[in-house]
Amino acid sequence: MQNTTADQASLQIAPAKGIFIDNEWRPASSGAAIDVYAPAEGTVFARIAAGNVADIDRAVAAARQAFESGNWGRLTGVERGRLLARLGQLVLDHIDELTLIEARDTSKPMKQARADILACARYFEFYGGAADKFHGETIPFLNGYFVATEREPHGVTGHIIPWNYPAQMFGRSLAPALAMGNATVMKPAEDACLTPLRLCELAAEAGFPEGAINVVPGLGTEAGAALIAHKGVDFLSFTGSPEVGVLVQSEAARNHIGCTLELGGKSPQIVFADVDLDAALPSLVNAIVQNAGQTCSAGARLLVEKGGYDRIVTAVVERFARLRAGTPEMDLDLGALISRRQHERVERFTTRAAADAIPLLAEGGIAEGVPSAGYFVTPKLFGPVPRSNILAREEVFGPVLSVIPFADEADAIVAANGTDFGLIAGVWSQDGKRALRVARKIKGGQVYINAYGAGGGIELPFGGVKKSGHGREKGMAALHDFTTLKTLVVKHD
Ligand code: NAP
Ligand code: MG
Fold it and tell me: In what helix (H) or strand (E) does residue 390 lie, and over which residues does it extend?
């Protein structure tokens, strides 16, 4: 493999500027910085500020001021909606620049990075339109009373996002919170936070008042830990690992505040023998390959009815073997993994599969000419995987698909629900009644029939049960979580 770093130098990136508080860049109070790696190259290409507890303190104070007495807290829903819509438009106006930043920072293919920037814009458009349309109701009560409910923002909301979709997560987490009038503090992931650092600048350009959006990059164990424990935060929104999710919920409990947790999954695609295979195949494969499998809602378990096992698996094998990983500019099926640590994690799972004698059914390739230090892995299809095996139960967060046979409809439901997670699922069958019966028995936040929606659908409520977390993001449902309900009771007789 030859080194193509020279080609990639054409991807020029605006340098990160520090910590964004009150619409201004400030240096980290400690002066410390963190190296940023381009995963496709395995080399450092930028540096970000390492925020700490003092920086989080400042950001929370700025948000508090904006909410209580600044220009942000005074705005009506219509005015907030206009700002969100303006930011959505600015994101679209800067789509080429943002796509380059996202692609280099995460190593995802350019087409995926571009789709992510469009989705980011779409979050601001959607919630811009919703800002003045989510409201309370009147309630019939006793004679002589008038009762109404009102949706109020929490105040200061804390947002911790992961590295897999930084631009999308910026929109997904912040847009509904802002639409409802909360003032926000975000701690993006140190492994990929350059688009959030550019997006907050664009927000200031769109006209968001000081303190509405504050972004503090830094380590999870410092800036993240300070944010989740902060007594000045009124609500927490977290996407990431189940382990850190437990810490977030513990801190939220200590401070008597609510939180939403989106913690990933081991989502099943349930394929019956009567599947329309030509229609299903692209989704069955793409659901695990998209973003190199580093997607919370990746379709990581392929449950296949025994009656159609050979035909279905043969088709998946053929397609899987043709998959190629490459640099963002190569724009192939997948890019590199995000970090050396993630690379080691995925390799551990595949080493374990070999030790457990799980058959490797198909393996994709890595394109000629990718930098040798990049964090690339080949996509791998394993099966049949016993239901008790780690590959059938734990989230790999890489391009690794486990094929698991099932006997019939009842067995499919048992298998689908047989992990600690419950995020999304797909059911593939031409028998509509059966597909619907199965879908309704699945424990999870979203179920698709003859479709699969890893990461898509801004309009669609999304979230999990069990170890996948709780609370709902996306759609109008997110507005419930980012508000609190007050009931006004008036006696007029
Ligand atoms: P992670 O540690 O949970 O990271 C998610 C976010 O939480 C990052 O911003 C991280 O900051 C922050 N964080 C880490 N420790 C924290 C703490 N003690 N207090 C507050 N915030 C903290 O996830 P990861 O280590 O990057 O990835 C590990 C595994 O988690 C993956 O392999 C995957 O299985 C899962 N994961 C799931 C999702 C999802 O979308 N559900 C996303 C990412 C990862 P820093 O990164 O800056 O340290
Ligand atoms: Mg991390």
Answer: helix 390-393
C-alpha distances in Å from residue 489, one per residue of 137, 147, 152: 12, 5, 16
Dump pLDDT digits (tens) for 25-37. Answer: 999 999 999 999 9
Residues with CB under 6 A from ligand 1: 160-164, 187, 189-191, 219-221, 224-225, 228, 239-241, 244, 247, 262-264, 296, 345, 395, 397
What is the distance between the alpha carbons of residues 203 and 23, in angstroms, rounded to a whole number? 9
Pick left, alpha or beta for residue 18 (phi over 0 → left; psi -120 to 50 → alpha; otherwise beta): left
| CATH level 3 topology of 5-263+471-487 | Aldehyde Dehydrogenase; Chain A, domain 1 (3.40.605)
> pLDDT tens digit string along 416-443?
999 999 999 999 999 999 999 999 999 9
Residue 53: its H or E element = helix 53-68
**Gap between the Cα atoms of 131 and 371, Å rounded:** 46
Angle at 287 between CA 314 and CA 271, to 5 degrees: 50
262 is catalytic: yes
Domain at 268-457, CATH from 3.30.70.1790, 3.40.309.10, 3.40.1190.20, 3.40.50.720: 3.40.309.10
**Which of 294, 382, 287, 303 has the alpha carbon at shortest distance from 338?**
294
The pTM score is 0.96
pLDDT of residue 8: 44
**Which ligand has the minimum distance to the alpha carbon of residue 221?**
1
